């Protein structure tokens, strides 16, 4: 899976295919909440892609305090190992919620072709 970096903000990242063969993309944006929807809508119009073939899921994942502190400390060579540890703890904290969301989305897709 590609790593999200600051230069990745606003870019559509391909993550491969899910268990049903569907292509999976991720979009990481900061700022206004409605912007991702407009961006995806424009992307689909620009490339004349059928909107009914896409399913957009807005994840509730946010940078928690552990992730923010870890990212800050990773920039300092002396504290980089501690920063990495905090990032791992922050990701573990978010993992359960994201896993649950994925299962809900998969459950909702069972009626789709």
Structure commentary:
The protein is mainly alpha-helical. It is globular. The two termini are 26 Å apart. The model has no long low-confidence stretch (mean pLDDT 78).
Count up the domains: 2
The whole-number mean of residue pLDDT values reads 78
**How would the global form be characterised?**
globular
Strand residue percentage: 5-15%
Largest sheet report? 2 strands, antiparallel
Helicity, as a percent range: 40-55%
| Count of helix runs | 3
Distance between the termini: 26 Å
The poorly predicted ranges are: none
Largest sheet strand order: 1-2
Quick structural gist:
The chain is mostly helical. It has helices at 35-46, 65-74, 80-108, and strands spanning 12-17, 23-27. It has a two-stranded antiparallel ribbon.
Give the key terms.
single chain; 113 residues; mainly alpha; 2 domains; two-stranded antiparallel sheet; 3 helices
Topology of this protein?
Elements: E1 12-17, E2 23-27, H1 35-46, H2 65-74, H3 80-108
Antiparallel strand pairs: 1-2
Helix pairs in contact: 2-3
């Amino acid at each position: 899976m590609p790593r999200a970096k600051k230069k990745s903000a606003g870019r559509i990242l391909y993550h491969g295919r899910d268990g049903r063969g569907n292509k999976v993309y991720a979009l990481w944006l900061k700022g206004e909440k409605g912007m991702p929807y407009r961006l995806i809508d424009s992307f689909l119009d620009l490339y004349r892609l059928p909107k009914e073939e896409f399913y957009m899921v807005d994840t509730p994942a946010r940078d928690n305090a552990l992730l923010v502190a870890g990212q800050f400390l990773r920039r300092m060579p002396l504290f980089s190992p501690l920063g990495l540890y905090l990032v791992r703890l922050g990701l573990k904290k978010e993992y359960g919620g994201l896993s649950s969301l994925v299962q809900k989305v998969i459950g909702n897709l069972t009626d789709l072709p």
